[in-house]
Amino acid sequence: MDRSSGPGGSPGRHRSVCLALVFVALPLLIGLLALWYQADATGATGSGPRTPPPGADTAARLLAAAAVVLGASHAAGRLAALAGQPPVIGEICAGVLLGPSLLGHAAPGVWAWLFPGRILPMLDGLAQLGLVFFMFGVGRDLSAVRLRTVGGRTVLVSLASLAVPFAGGTVAAVVLADDHAGSAGPVSFAVFLGCALGITAFPVLARILSELGLSHTPVGRTSLLAAAVGDAGAWLLLAAAMTVAQAPGSSGPGLVLMAAGAAAAALCLGPLRRALHRVASRRYGDDGAEGGASLPVPLLACAVCSCAALTSVLGLHAAFGAFLAGAVLPAGSGAVTAAADRIASFSTGILMPFFFLGFGLSVDLSALSTDSGTVATTGALLAVAVLAKLLGPGLCARLTGMPWRDSFRLGVLLNARGLTELVVLGIGWEAGVIDRQMFTVLTVVTLITTVMPAPLLKLLDPKPLEGKPLDPKLLERDGKRAAATRRGPSPPGAPGHDGPREPIREPAGDTASPEQR
């Protein structure tokens, strides 16, 4: 028994009170007396209140801007989901509306206070980091698509999804180059416009397919593969356009840089990728079982940023290096996949809204001229963008055996350009390939073609197609067994494929994975 406490514990309580007075009350009293003396001395000398540190106001503005950007992005994403659109559509619109297109035009004082010039470099740094990690995810998604068992029809449709829009864009560039080509020259402008019209946003397409129940249908599988092949080719052509843009007056340096980039890409996608896969298999295993070794997320993020910085130093955009880092990532290791998923989740939810804001700050839709020439240019590019996807891969699919209805669905799906297109436009604008008016016009075309697929497909067939049996003849043409008459394991490149990684997952409720966004 504790001898310090008697009956009722009175001696123990008295001791606790004494200790509190000595070690708590007395120090507080001394501190208050010191503060009173200091305040009295300050008043006697007549010194006024001290000014806050120089960076305090900048930090407050940055945090206020970050709160507004993240809150607006989340709210707009939820509204887009309620309207039947992928959340990324709402997030893009939020970034544009926070720029001079709406907030800067309607409340310039609020806009200037919220986004002063001194915090714009900080916001741009967050935007560039989000862009780098997003492109890393795009490369990772496209590298997970297996094309070895794809049939001839899908190969033709995939090539047509790039070739026909690219041809349409280069023809349109011949007419528009004199008025809208930037300092990089007409050749880079033509290649860039062809790439911009040929892009399909792979993550946005996957989300639309999942929401409409088309993921495991022939049209859904074909559109995913066509988007993967078309986007890979478009990024290669865009890299070529950027190398030419570095030396518009001379083709020698551009050709040397292009050859060096092609050699580096071949080295990374070939021997380096196989070597990384062997190292990851030995170190982390292939099954990704819990309890095994895990890949540190900062280490993977460091590798991605290093690749992005290297390509930026070489004269290409940092996005190409991040894309290449995702393409060479070993897809069979559960530890590597888990680390990459954590990066994608943080980038999608926290960093990408700042990229949307940066894009919105650089485009002013309210300043877009409504004269007949601008309206005609916008309408012509919109028509070329839509019809090239409908008459290119859509008609090609019909001529190789796909029904008319599914062929039209395929063309509509491949018109979803989304965030990937915005990245392309930003790269072209920064490199001086296009002028500001063309940048704004292509932004309008991107927004329209991204919003268009989901409601148009619902109008064509309001009933979900998930679970309908696949056509055995179409499966046989795609290199599958003719006896497959029920839904089984997903084909290569489609959601649910029994490979090492599923780039697209079915959403649970209104929650989307980073890859689906």
Automatic annotation (TrEMBL):
Gene3D superfamilies: 1.20.1530.20
Pfam families: Na_H_Exchanger (PF00999)
Basic and acidic residues bias spans: 466-481, 498-508
Keyword Cell wall biogenesis/degradation in annotation: no
Membrane topology recorded in Swiss-Prot or TrEMBL: Multi-pass membrane protein
Compartment annotation: Membrane
Residue ranges of every copy of the Cation/H+ exchanger transmembrane domain listed in the record: 74-452
Membrane spanning residue stretches: 20-39, 59-80, 92-114, 126-143, 155-177, 189-210, 222-242, 254-272, 293-312, 318-336, 343-363, 375-396
Disordered: annotated span: 466-517
Protein's name in the database: Cation/H+ exchanger transmembrane domain-containing protein
Organism: Streptomyces hygroscopicus
InterPro entries recorded: Cation/H_exchanger_TM (IPR006153), CPA2_transporter (IPR050794), Na+/solute_symporter_sf (IPR038770)
Alphabetically ordered keywords of this record: Ion transport, Membrane, Transmembrane, Transmembrane helix, Transport
